[in-house]
Amino acid sequence: MEPPPSPWAFGDPATYDPHDDLVAIGADLAPGTLLAAYRRGLFPMPSGSPGDPMYWFCPVRRGVLPLGGLVVSRSLRRSCRDLEVRVDTAFAEVLDACGDPTRPQGWIDEDIRAAYLRLYELGWAHSVETWRDGELVGGLYGVAIGGLFAGESMFHRARDASKVALVGLVERLRDEHASDRVLDVQWSTPHLASLGVVEVPRSTYLARLRRALPLPPAAGLVRTASGDRPTPEE
Protein backbone atom coordinates (compact mmCIF):
# COMPACT_ATOMS: atom_id res chain seq x y z
CA MET A 1 0.00 0.00 0.00
CA GLU A 2 1.47 3.34 -1.07
CA PRO A 3 1.12 5.89 1.76
CA PRO A 4 0.39 9.59 1.28
CA PRO A 5 3.40 11.47 -0.13
CA SER A 6 5.80 13.20 2.23
CA PRO A 7 5.70 16.99 2.63
CA TRP A 8 9.48 16.92 3.11
CA ALA A 9 12.05 17.24 0.33
CA PHE A 10 15.50 15.65 0.56
CA GLY A 11 17.05 17.53 -2.35
CA ASP A 12 19.14 16.25 -5.21
CA PRO A 13 21.66 13.58 -4.11
CA ALA A 14 24.10 15.00 -6.65
CA THR A 15 24.40 18.09 -4.45
CA TYR A 16 25.21 16.22 -1.22
CA ASP A 17 28.59 16.88 0.41
CA PRO A 18 30.94 14.33 -1.20
CA HIS A 19 32.87 13.96 2.06
CA ASP A 20 30.06 13.61 4.61
CA ASP A 21 27.73 10.64 5.19
CA LEU A 22 25.23 12.88 7.02
CA VAL A 23 23.18 14.69 4.37
CA ALA A 24 20.00 15.93 6.10
CA ILE A 25 18.59 16.72 9.54
CA GLY A 26 14.92 16.93 10.52
CA ALA A 27 11.73 15.74 8.77
CA ASP A 28 9.57 12.98 10.29
CA LEU A 29 9.26 9.21 10.18
CA ALA A 30 5.89 8.97 8.44
CA PRO A 31 5.69 6.10 5.94
CA GLY A 32 5.71 8.45 2.95
CA THR A 33 8.79 10.22 4.27
CA LEU A 34 10.68 7.00 4.87
CA LEU A 35 9.88 5.64 1.42
CA ALA A 36 10.85 8.91 -0.24
CA ALA A 37 14.17 8.83 1.62
CA TYR A 38 14.99 5.23 0.65
CA ARG A 39 14.13 6.01 -2.97
CA ARG A 40 16.75 8.76 -2.88
CA GLY A 41 19.35 6.60 -1.17
CA LEU A 42 18.90 7.90 2.38
CA PHE A 43 18.09 6.18 5.65
CA PRO A 44 17.35 7.58 9.15
CA MET A 45 19.15 7.20 12.45
CA PRO A 46 18.47 8.99 15.74
CA SER A 47 21.10 11.47 16.87
CA GLY A 48 21.30 9.75 20.24
CA SER A 49 20.12 12.77 22.21
CA PRO A 50 16.44 12.85 23.27
CA GLY A 51 14.52 15.64 21.59
CA ASP A 52 17.03 16.15 18.79
CA PRO A 53 15.81 15.96 15.18
CA MET A 54 16.32 12.86 13.07
CA TYR A 55 19.57 12.39 11.14
CA TRP A 56 19.54 11.13 7.54
CA PHE A 57 22.53 9.41 5.98
CA CYS A 58 23.67 8.62 2.46
CA PRO A 59 27.16 7.12 2.96
CA VAL A 60 30.00 8.29 0.76
CA ARG A 61 31.10 4.63 0.69
CA ARG A 62 28.04 2.38 0.67
CA GLY A 63 28.03 -1.21 1.85
CA VAL A 64 26.23 -3.59 -0.52
CA LEU A 65 26.10 -7.36 -0.76
CA PRO A 66 26.21 -8.68 -4.35
CA LEU A 67 23.64 -11.48 -4.49
CA GLY A 68 26.17 -13.71 -6.20
CA GLY A 69 28.95 -12.80 -3.78
CA LEU A 70 27.65 -14.11 -0.46
CA VAL A 71 30.39 -16.12 1.26
CA VAL A 72 28.97 -19.25 2.88
CA SER A 73 31.54 -21.20 4.87
CA ARG A 74 31.31 -24.91 5.59
CA SER A 75 30.25 -24.23 9.18
CA LEU A 76 27.58 -21.79 8.02
CA ARG A 77 26.21 -24.42 5.63
CA ARG A 78 25.85 -26.76 8.59
CA SER A 79 24.01 -24.07 10.54
CA CYS A 80 21.68 -23.53 7.57
CA ARG A 81 20.68 -27.19 7.82
CA ASP A 82 20.07 -26.90 11.56
CA LEU A 83 17.85 -23.79 11.55
CA GLU A 84 14.47 -23.03 10.02
CA VAL A 85 14.04 -19.79 8.06
CA ARG A 86 10.72 -17.94 8.05
CA VAL A 87 9.65 -14.61 6.56
CA ASP A 88 7.38 -12.05 8.23
CA THR A 89 6.08 -14.29 11.01
CA ALA A 90 7.63 -12.35 13.92
CA PHE A 91 8.47 -8.86 12.68
CA ALA A 92 7.86 -7.08 16.00
CA GLU A 93 9.90 -9.65 17.89
CA VAL A 94 12.83 -9.26 15.48
CA LEU A 95 12.60 -5.49 15.73
CA ASP A 96 12.60 -5.63 19.51
CA ALA A 97 15.55 -8.04 19.60
CA CYS A 98 17.53 -5.75 17.28
CA GLY A 99 16.62 -2.81 19.51
CA ASP A 100 17.53 -4.50 22.79
CA PRO A 101 18.88 -1.61 24.91
CA THR A 102 21.57 -3.85 26.39
CA ARG A 103 23.19 -4.29 22.98
CA PRO A 104 26.25 -2.10 22.39
CA GLN A 105 25.70 0.88 20.09
CA GLY A 106 21.95 0.38 20.11
CA TRP A 107 20.09 3.00 18.08
CA ILE A 108 16.52 1.71 17.66
CA ASP A 109 14.38 3.96 19.84
CA GLU A 110 10.59 4.05 20.27
CA ASP A 111 10.12 6.41 17.32
CA ILE A 112 12.08 4.13 15.00
CA ARG A 113 10.21 1.09 16.32
CA ALA A 114 6.79 2.64 15.71
CA ALA A 115 7.79 3.87 12.24
CA TYR A 116 8.99 0.48 11.00
CA LEU A 117 6.08 -1.38 12.51
CA ARG A 118 3.85 0.90 10.42
CA LEU A 119 5.92 0.17 7.30
CA TYR A 120 5.51 -3.54 8.04
CA GLU A 121 1.75 -3.14 8.35
CA LEU A 122 1.72 -1.43 4.94
CA GLY A 123 3.78 -4.24 3.38
CA TRP A 124 7.08 -2.36 2.87
CA ALA A 125 9.15 -3.74 5.75
CA HIS A 126 10.02 -7.40 6.24
CA SER A 127 11.70 -9.71 8.69
CA VAL A 128 13.68 -12.83 7.86
CA GLU A 129 13.86 -15.03 10.93
CA THR A 130 15.72 -18.12 12.08
CA TRP A 131 14.04 -20.60 14.38
CA ARG A 132 15.14 -23.66 16.32
CA ASP A 133 12.60 -25.99 17.95
CA GLY A 134 9.93 -23.29 17.78
CA GLU A 135 12.15 -20.61 19.34
CA LEU A 136 13.23 -17.44 17.58
CA VAL A 137 17.04 -17.43 17.69
CA GLY A 138 18.01 -14.82 15.09
CA GLY A 139 16.91 -12.62 12.28
CA LEU A 140 17.09 -9.37 10.38
CA TYR A 141 14.68 -6.74 9.13
CA GLY A 142 14.68 -4.18 6.37
CA VAL A 143 12.71 -2.26 3.78
CA ALA A 144 11.90 -3.61 0.31
CA ILE A 145 11.03 -1.23 -2.54
CA GLY A 146 11.02 -2.77 -6.00
CA GLY A 147 14.44 -4.31 -6.45
CA LEU A 148 15.93 -2.66 -3.35
CA PHE A 149 16.22 -4.42 -0.01
CA ALA A 150 17.61 -1.98 2.54
CA GLY A 151 18.83 -4.00 5.52
CA GLU A 152 18.45 -2.20 8.83
CA SER A 153 19.62 -4.48 11.62
CA MET A 154 20.13 -8.10 12.61
CA PHE A 155 20.53 -10.12 15.81
CA HIS A 156 21.37 -13.62 16.98
CA ARG A 157 20.85 -15.73 20.08
CA ALA A 158 22.47 -18.85 18.66
CA ARG A 159 25.64 -19.34 16.66
CA ASP A 160 25.31 -18.19 13.02
CA ALA A 161 21.59 -17.47 13.47
CA SER A 162 21.77 -13.98 11.94
CA LYS A 163 24.02 -15.24 9.14
CA VAL A 164 21.50 -17.96 8.30
CA ALA A 165 18.82 -15.26 8.07
CA LEU A 166 21.04 -13.40 5.62
CA VAL A 167 21.49 -16.56 3.55
CA GLY A 168 17.70 -16.96 3.55
CA LEU A 169 17.22 -13.37 2.40
CA VAL A 170 19.71 -13.74 -0.45
CA GLU A 171 18.00 -16.94 -1.59
CA ARG A 172 14.68 -15.12 -1.75
CA LEU A 173 16.14 -12.23 -3.74
CA ARG A 174 17.76 -14.45 -6.36
CA ASP A 175 15.46 -14.51 -9.37
CA GLU A 176 15.59 -13.43 -13.01
CA HIS A 177 16.20 -9.84 -11.83
CA ALA A 178 18.95 -10.71 -9.35
CA SER A 179 21.73 -8.96 -11.28
CA ASP A 180 19.91 -5.62 -10.94
CA ARG A 181 18.60 -6.02 -7.39
CA VAL A 182 20.39 -4.12 -4.62
CA LEU A 183 20.95 -5.53 -1.13
CA ASP A 184 22.01 -2.47 0.86
CA VAL A 185 23.66 -2.86 4.28
CA GLN A 186 24.43 0.86 4.79
CA TRP A 187 28.04 0.62 5.96
CA SER A 188 30.49 -2.25 5.60
CA THR A 189 32.21 -3.72 8.66
CA PRO A 190 34.93 -6.38 8.91
CA HIS A 191 32.23 -8.89 9.89
CA LEU A 192 30.04 -8.02 6.90
CA ALA A 193 33.04 -7.93 4.57
CA SER A 194 33.80 -11.53 5.58
CA LEU A 195 30.35 -12.43 4.25
CA GLY A 196 30.96 -10.77 0.90
CA VAL A 197 29.84 -7.18 1.48
CA VAL A 198 31.71 -4.65 -0.64
CA GLU A 199 31.90 -0.87 -0.61
CA VAL A 200 30.85 1.20 -3.61
CA PRO A 201 30.99 4.98 -4.12
CA ARG A 202 27.82 6.93 -3.46
CA SER A 203 27.41 7.70 -7.16
CA THR A 204 27.61 4.02 -8.06
CA TYR A 205 25.07 3.10 -5.41
CA LEU A 206 22.63 5.77 -6.58
CA ALA A 207 22.96 4.63 -10.21
CA ARG A 208 22.27 1.04 -9.20
CA LEU A 209 19.36 2.18 -7.03
CA ARG A 210 17.73 3.92 -10.01
CA ARG A 211 17.88 0.65 -11.97
CA ALA A 212 16.59 -1.41 -9.06
CA LEU A 213 13.56 0.61 -7.97
CA PRO A 214 11.35 -0.12 -11.04
CA LEU A 215 11.83 -3.89 -10.68
CA PRO A 216 9.02 -6.08 -9.35
CA PRO A 217 9.32 -7.11 -5.70
CA ALA A 218 10.98 -10.44 -5.03
CA ALA A 219 8.30 -13.12 -4.84
CA GLY A 220 9.75 -14.52 -1.64
CA LEU A 221 9.01 -11.27 0.20
CA VAL A 222 5.49 -10.58 -1.06
CA ARG A 223 2.62 -10.96 1.39
CA THR A 224 -0.87 -11.73 0.14
CA ALA A 225 -3.36 -8.95 -0.52
CA SER A 226 -5.28 -9.97 2.60
CA GLY A 227 -2.18 -9.37 4.70
CA ASP A 228 -1.75 -13.04 5.57
CA ARG A 229 1.73 -14.06 6.54
CA PRO A 230 3.50 -16.50 4.25
CA THR A 231 3.68 -20.13 5.16
CA PRO A 232 6.95 -20.80 7.07
CA GLU A 233 9.63 -21.89 4.62
CA GLU A 234 12.55 -24.23 5.25
From TrEMBL:
**Cited function:** Functions in the N-end rule pathway of protein degradation where it conjugates Leu, Phe and, less efficiently, Met from aminoacyl-tRNAs to the N-termini of proteins containing an N-terminal arginine or lysine.
Q: Check the record and name the InterPro entries matching this protein.
A: Acyl_CoA_acyltransferase, Leu/Phe-tRNA_Trfase, Leu/Phe-tRNA_Trfase_C, Leu/Phe-tRNA_Trfase_N
Specify the protein name. Leucyl/phenylalanyl-tRNA--protein transferase
Keyword Cell wall biogenesis/degradation listed: no
Q: Which family does it belong to?
A: Belongs to the L/F-transferase family.
Q: Which GO terms describe its molecular function?
A: leucyl-tRNA--protein transferase activity
Q: Which UniProt keywords apply?
A: Acyltransferase, Cytoplasm, Transferase
Q: Which domain of life is it from?
A: Bacteria
The subcellular location is: Cytoplasm
Which NCBIfam families would you find in this protein's record? aat
The record lists the organism as Nocardioides oceani
Reactions catalysed, as given in the entry: L-phenylalanyl-tRNA(Phe) + an N-terminal L-alpha-aminoacyl-[protein] = an N-terminal L-phenylalanyl-L-alpha-aminoacyl-[protein] + tRNA(Phe); N-terminal L-arginyl-[protein] + L-leucyl-tRNA(Leu) = N-terminal L-leucyl-L-arginyl-[protein] + tRNA(Leu) + H(+); N-terminal L-lysyl-[protein] + L-leucyl-tRNA(Leu) = N-terminal L-leucyl-L-lysyl-[protein] + tRNA(Leu) + H(+)
Enzyme Commission number(s)? 2.3.2.6
